[in-house]
Amino acid sequence: MPAASLLLALAACRATVFLTIDTGNMEPAEAMAAILRKHDVKATFFLANEKTKRGDASLDASWAPFWKQLAAEGHAFGTHTWRHWYVRGDAPGGKVSYVPWGAKQGESLDREAFCAELRKPEEAFKAMTGRGFDGLWRAPGGKTTPRAIEFAKSCGYTHVGWSPAGFSGDELPSDKFPGDALLARQLRDIRNGDVLLWHLGIWSRQEPMWPKLDELIAGLKDKGFCFARIPEGAAWKR
After folding, report:
1. I need a labelling partner for 49 at 20 to 30 A (CA). Which of 101, 202, 214, 223 fits?
2. What is the count of structural domains for the chain?
3. Do residues 43 and 199 lie in contact, with contact meaning Cβ atoms separated by under 8 Å?
C-alpha cells in the first residue's frame, strides 16, 4: 500500500478489534478464508485436531494446502489443545483434570502431559507449513484453572479468551438465536480492544452463522474499526 494510502487508512481507524477463529467441523473453512481475503483482514486461528464433515480431522495432512495458504497470507496461530477436551479443575497431586465434552471422567494431566497436549497441534501445523504457533492457546469452552494457566505459561503459551460482545453466537441454536439478531447485537456492542470469537463450522447449528462474518467485517469497518492479530495488540482483553 502506498504511504499516502496507508496514512489515510490509519487516520480512518478509530478503534481496533481482534478476530479469532477456532477450528470446528471445517465445512465453511475455505469460504471463511475467502471472506478474510475479500476484506484484507488478518485473523488469529486456534487449532485443535477436530473431526470434520469430510471425514478426516482438521490437522490431518489432507488439510496442509489450506493451512499453508493461511500461513502464507500472514495470519497468526495458536493451540486449541489436540483432542479438544475440557479443563474441568485442578486435580490432586499437582495435576489438571481434562475431560471429553459430555463425559464425567477423563484424565489427570501433569505439567509434562498438559504441555504435550498443547504442543501437539503446533507440531502437526509446523510439519504442514514450516512455521510454528505464536505462543498462544485457547482452552476449549474458554475453561481454565490457575494450574492450567501456569502449566501453559511454563511451556510458552499465553491464554486468549474472548470478549462478551465479541462472541459471535455461532454455537447457539439458530431457532432461538437467528443470525440477523446475533449480527445486530455484535455491530451494536463491540468496542475497541474486543476479541471476537468465531468457528470454522459448528455441528449443532442448523442455520449457519458463518456467512454473517462478511457483513460483520464490513459493518465494523464502516464504523471505523480496524482488525489486528492477537500478537500485535498489547491491549486485547484476556
Report:
1. 214
2. 1
3. no
